[in-house]
Design a protein that fits this description.
Shape: globular
Number of strands: 15
Helix content: 25-40%
Order of helices and strands: EEEHHEEHEHEHEHEHEHEEEEEH
Amino acid sequence: MRTSKRSLEKIVFSALIFACCYAELVYAVNPVHPGGSNYGWYKIDAATQPAPVGSNCRENYGIIKNYQNAGVRDLVINQLMQMKANGQQRLRVPLYHMRNASGGTLLVSQGGNLSAHDRESLRLFLSDIRDIGFSEILFGFFPIGQNSPVNWPSWNEDLFQENWNLIANIRPIIKNSGILYRIDLMNEGAPANHQTQLKEYVRKLWINYNLTYGKADTVGVSVIGQANEGDTTYRGTIDRYNTTKNIYDATPFGSPYLWSIHFYANLKGNFLALDNAMNARGDNTGIIIGETFYDDAASWNAIKQTNISRTVWHVYQWPVTPSRGCDGHVDVTPPLKYRYHDSLTQTVNLAPKGALDGIDSNTGRVWGWACDPSTPGQSARVHFYADGPAGKGRLIKAITANKASGAAVKSACGGG
């Protein structure tokens, strides 16, 4: 089996295949990939960490907002090097924005763009992440205050266009950073069924993005996994997934190739509820855990002990502990420690993916693509059977899918 780093391999068959034939991808079981941290602040106002409950500790220390201030870039580079040395290979980068923003974290997005200064700060930050050797970023857009459709009493086309233009203007900076990336179009933007404005926001945003860029580099909007107080049915998690899935499926573009899910309290129950809801929809898409508690043994054990039927590609921790110090959102920074990594022993028996794109009835030439989501860096083996599937039919050809693939096909298998 070829081991060159390719997520999916475009396959071109030259064997004579009859209309009665079946193809089966032979797949392996492998652990998921290492992740890293949500990294948006270089400091908090606290004498000890994790910080005790109190006021907002992070506001003055947003990385992008302060990156060109004296000493900040050098400090962040040092923190990035420590995080990388501790096994973190990926980062989630948040961009908090609002039309009339102020303070040390929020960026002004008036008119659908950042200031030239803030755009340059972002470019420098991403270039430093790349140069230190991180393998991937998940870039998240965090509309706040009046820019968040959660807060709109009625539809606001002006603010929608502002948010959409911001994504369109920032995406080239992300794309040109030279690092593998995915984009979260709205942090925890997956709506509950009753959130009318948020549903319309996600629908329009998903259509705009797909028409302009396709969906190979986005996870859509992230989903917050949650359970109502005393409710062990996890209806909040299920509702947000199903509502968002309905929105995606009502467009010509369908769902993203990967979902980004945030799990905090009741992690195992939420995880299982989500997996069951996805299975009920015939959705075998892999997921990224985009947020969970910082370096938390209980969360780590819950992830390892949860038996699910899909790939979990990697885990991004959020810099808050279960004690939820400060204002409950960030009580540790920099997030140097990381346990969701090389001791990860959860494995998956995930079904292979692929498609038979065509057959030439004159020559017998067959073409398509195939991958093993558990080993996206390896070329997949494909078996062809006549007169029935594996176990019943006759094996007539075994090949390796080892041709270069396009971005959309790579993304369908979770990167690589």
